[in-house]
Amino acid sequence: MSEPALEGALVDIDGTVFRGSEPIAGAPEGIETLREAGVRPVFLSNNATKRPSTYAEVLDEAGVPTEPASVLNAAGIAAAYLGRHHPDDGVYLIGESALRAELEAADVTLVADPARADVVLASTDRSFDYGTLEDVLAADEAGGVVVYATNPDRTVPTETGERPDCGPVIGAIEGLLGREIDRVLGKPSEVTIEVALERLGLEAEECVMIGDRLDTDVRMGERAGMRTVLVRSGVTDDDALAASELEPDHVIDSLGDVGRHLL
């Protein structure tokens, strides 16, 4: 039985289209190749330190014309999820200004007093310190708090190398509380899958997931039943690929090669 026609692509941004603020060679051409073949992209990022509208502007400047509605990042996904599932709950935020702005735009109630929090939302936060952990403990001791994270990534690729992402924050919180957090909202969670497919108006089998990470991009695509493409332009090298139980359908050097292998 043949696969359904490919109509949509979930395209990771960091490490696939950009490294830091610099577009990866061939990436704009790869996106254009997908569009010319009738494959509509939606762009995904687990980086919650920018707003979706900022990503759309950066993509435009890099030669990839993009509407803000075609960008889903961890900040926007978290705001949508909390607005839908916790509309009246107080949220104690561990995160930076772009995430705060996205939550406020979605009318999420943010609280400064951790004892008043119903939800702790953890994300990348370059001011994270011991005092933050004291606040998390106070929220937990008040009872009934749920702990979410925007994304599980240990690091994020930049022009000058990798820097810490949300994973270390999650590790510190789990070590403090002695339990796992309740849910990750970004890749590879079902929350991201549902939002992306809803945005495209497609079924999973009509889509491909393209990204540079095995543990988030490829894992999410496999979990959803999508075709998967791993690009070597980000954090995954051949040794990591050989050691992984995950097997992407295609492995390419960069997004610029997508036409030769997928279409």
From TrEMBL:
One of its GO terms (cellular component) is cytoplasm. InterPro entries: HAD-like_sf, HAD-SF_hydro_IIA, HAD_sf. GO terms for molecular function: phosphatase activity. Keywords: Hydrolase. Gene3D superfamilies: HAD superfamily/HAD-like. The keyword Mitochondrion does not apply. NCBIfam families: HAD-SF-IIA (TIGR01460). This is HAD-IIA family hydrolase.
